[in-house]
Amino acid sequence: MKKINKEVIILYCIITLFGFISLPDLQAQIRTTVLPDAGFEKRIEKAVNDIRLIDTHEHLRMESQVMANSNFDFTHLFQQYIKNDLISAGMSTSALDMVNGRVFPITDRWEIVKPFWYSMRTTAYGRVALIAANDLYGIPDINDDTYLELSKRINDSMKPGWYKHVLKDKAKIDVSIIDWGFKPNRGHVQFDKDFYVHVERYDDFIYVFSPSEIEKLGQEYGIETKTLDNYVLALEKAFQAGLEYEMVGVKSGLAYKRIIQYDDVSKEKAEEVFTKIFTRDRSLPKLSFESVKPLQDYMMHRVLELADKHDLPVQIHTGLQAGNGNLITNSKPTHLNNLFHQYPGVKFCVFHGSYPYGGELSVLAKNFPNVFIDMTWTQIISPYYSERYLHEWLETVPANKIMAFGGDYGTVEGVYAHSVMARRVVSKVLTEKVASGYITEAEAIDIANRILRENAMEIFKLDGH
Ligand SMILES: [Zn+2]
Q1: How many whole angstroms from 408 Cα to the centroid of ligand 1?
Q2: Residue 38 domain-assigned (yes or no)
Q3: pTM across the whole model
Q4: Is the pLDDT assigned to residue 18 strictly greater than 60?
């Protein structure tokens, strides 16, 4: 008895000692404030849901362009990213074309896509279609019993005013930043300024291999681009056209085509490549990427100089590329490190939460005052990744440097569903942060307003929207 008592006492002492040493430490890592008043979860959710969003990135066509089509059906919700996951699930591109082609009867097309839809419907892209079907058309599932009625309701909805209903009333978006990749002189595209502003791409001035590409760009701006100086002049003219067309920033999507690492190349070296391009026999295949990279890198630096001069933010694609079979390592955000360092006056909006390089992005946005995190597309790649990294980014990166919504869609239905998922991610992360005592309820609501609205307003100078 005596021995047992002694062992119990020793064990008690160890537990007590362990508790004193470790428990306060564990709590201190996350609890930094007093715990919130009851009901905070609902209040945060309501505050997040009430925010009028600034949407940092879209590929939307204008309503009139969309309405010019007729005969919409369920495949309207199976566009864009969902196609990537249908192919990832094993569907052939020819079968996909057949389903979207609308030549064959709808019943046949449904039967073709059905097995692949059932395989991929649980991905976040699949969830987008289900949220849109439920919230916009009152159809809670897409299956054998509902696809015809869903098709009818989609077709019936396609009338003028639908965009306003979906974007303004349902998604509560004040303004969307459109990334069309157009040049004003390639056809004047009117868009409704109550809905949109735009960013411009100069990637075609960077990603060149042949004299004909360079000559064509020069011709568009009335400049004979036989010298590098003239080629840069053509870029400046294109940039000027973008300014006149009131672009609010510059976008680069070159991670789809090449590594996003851009050396600071001397003018002599760039001229060497330029001459090589123009003196090469035009009947030969185009030069390799390695051969032309110095010129491409040189041009990227010229674009950034122009953005710096005109105080325009630069949106850069990093991480996952849409589609199938892309090279992910081309898009690592750390490739951009030297640009962040060399252009402190340029605000770099690093896209897509750099999925799957969220940790790298965390370090970059923490280190560089001019690096901002943009979560466009991120919540519909993976809500869980978005939660995980938003948790981490709120601990590592100042809250004025995160933007948590960009629909990144070609359809308003996709934009709406993405907005729902983005609000849920933001609500959940902020609620968890408040529940753990890391931030107060008031801080959470302030962060929500910043990351869903105010930060984008400031960075893109959108006062008046
Ligand atoms: Zn995009």
Answers
A1: 5
A2: no
A3: 0.91
A4: no
